[in-house]
Amino acid sequence: MEKRQVRNNIRKLRFHHNEMTQEQLAVKVGVTRQTIIAIESAKYSPSLELAFRIALVFGVPLGEVFSYDAEDDPA
Question: Would you say residue 62 has pLDDT above 60?
Fold first, then answer.
């Protein structure tokens, strides 16, 4: 069975927003830089609230920041 995971475009979005640092994003959404690192590297899936806060910082819909690899997902 293939492992499914939440994928994200945070690194790319940070780059396109004046090369925002992980620390700057962390401060804007109220978490630590370590949390942003873990989310970017797909080692941690954010809460729904945090996911929305990240999308709001970049001014894009949630689906432009996060996606779910749902191949062969029966749901």
Answer: yes
Bridge partners for 25 per DSSP:
none
53 in Cβ contact with 30 (< 8 Å): yes
Residue 22 CB-half CA count within 13 A: 12
Q: Which residue has the tokens 């992980």?
A: 22
Listed in sequence order, the residues at least 6 apart from 38 whose beta carbon sits closer than 8 Å to its beta carbon are 44
Q: Which residues contact 8 (CB under 8 A, 6 or more apart)?
A: 39, 40, 42, 65, 66, 67
Mean pLDDT of all residues in 48-67: 97
